[in-house]
């Protein structure tokens, strides 16, 4: 797999987002339309991930966060969950060389303790191997939930206060953010959701309070550079006020 391709003829506007987060929805429906099992859709979805990474690199997006497996996905049929985890492990095993080749730093956020030892080991190893890569940060949300993230952050802060590492009166939003999975990363500028649904689904609840949202009916396996471009151009056309009033 290569992460480079011929640049698009139509250039993007200059004010592109630095951190894009994507809720990759629609793999199962994509497979159903083709009379295939849902696992077939997830495999096709992996190809869309590769295209998305290519585009992010080409357009100098600094952080790309992908919602690959939510904490609620365990409620799906066991066969589908098993196929998702197997696909995740396959990607880790087969893409590490390309991650290094194209200077990509891989991070995985979420409660990883529930995964089997083999998967955990590969996650930690690939993170370590790509740690010093200075290009795109590819942030994978696996067994992740926004509420879980916030609760874990609260627990860490309580522990810090109890051990007198932190003064409770000095806790501000910036301090709290340092106790979340995304600490050290750029703020999320743009959230894209495919598949036609218009909800957040417990994704980065704290982090996307002022992110721009972009929804598309396109199912994830059909997501491509042109749709990604449309999302970024839409972002570029918006006036981000962050609660303020912009004077003429």
UniProtKB/TrEMBL annotation:
Q: Which CDD domains match?
A: Cis_IPPS
One GO CC term, this protein: cytosol
Cite the GO molecular-function annotations of the record. ditrans,polycis-undecaprenyl-diphosphate synthase [(2E,6E)-farnesyl-diphosphate specific] activity; magnesium ion binding
Q: Which Pfam families match?
A: Prenyltransf
Q: Spell out the PROSITE patterns in the cross-references.
A: UPP_SYNTHASE
Q: Which residues form the active site?
A: 25, 73
Q: Which residues bind substrate?
A: 26-30, 38, 42, 70-72, 74, 76, 193, 199-201
* Protein's GO biological process: cell wall organization; peptidoglycan biosynthetic process; polyprenol biosynthetic process; regulation of cell shape
Give the EC class as a word.
Answer: transferase
| Recorded catalytic activity of this chain's protein | 8 isopentenyl diphosphate + (2E,6E)-farnesyl diphosphate = di-trans,octa-cis-undecaprenyl diphosphate + 8 diphosphate
Enzyme Commission identifier(s): 2.5.1.31
Functional note: Catalyzes the sequential condensation of isopentenyl diphosphate (IPP) with (2E,6E)-farnesyl diphosphate (E,E-FPP) to yield (2Z,6Z,10Z,14Z,18Z,22Z,26Z,30Z,34E,38E)-undecaprenyl diphosphate (di-trans,octa-cis-UPP). UPP is the precursor of glycosyl carrier lipid in the biosynthesis of bacterial cell wall polysaccharide components such as peptidoglycan and lipopolysaccharide.
Q: What is the name of the protein in this document? A: Ditrans,polycis-undecaprenyl-diphosphate synthase ((2E,6E)-farnesyl-diphosphate specific)
Q: Which gene is this protein's source?
A: uppS
């Amino acid at each position: 797999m290569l992460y480079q391709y011929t640049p698009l003829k139509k250039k993007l506007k200059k004010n592109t987002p630095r951190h894009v987060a994507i809720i990759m929805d629609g793999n199962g429906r994509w497979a159903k339309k083709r009379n295939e099992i849902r696992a077939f859709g997830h495999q096709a979805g992996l190809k869309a991930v590769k295209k998305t990474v290519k585009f992010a690199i080409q357009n100098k997006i600094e952080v790309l966060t992908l919602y690959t497996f939510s904490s609620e996905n365990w409620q799906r049929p066991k066969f589908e969950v098993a196929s998702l985890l197997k696909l995740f492990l396959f990607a880790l095993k087969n893409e590490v060389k390309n991650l290094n080749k194209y200077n990509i730093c891989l991070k995985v956020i979420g409660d990883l303790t529930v995964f089997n030892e083999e998967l955990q080991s590969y996650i930690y190893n690939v993170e370590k191997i790509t740690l010093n890569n200075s290009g795109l940060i590819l942030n994978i949300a696996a067994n992740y939930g926004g509420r879980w993230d916030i609760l874990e952050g609260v627990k860490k802060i309580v522990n810090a206060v109890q051990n007198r590492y932190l003064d409770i009166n000095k806790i501000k939003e910036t301090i709290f953010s340092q106790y979340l999975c995304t600490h050290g990363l750029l703020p999320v500028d743009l959230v894209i959701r495919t598949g036609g649904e218009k909800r957040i689904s417990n994704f980065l609840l704290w982090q996307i309070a002022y992110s721009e949202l972009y929804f598309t009916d396109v199912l994830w396996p059909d997501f491509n550079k042109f749709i990604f471009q449309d999302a970024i151009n839409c972002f570029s056309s918006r006036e981000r006020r962050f609660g303020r009033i912009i004077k003429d």
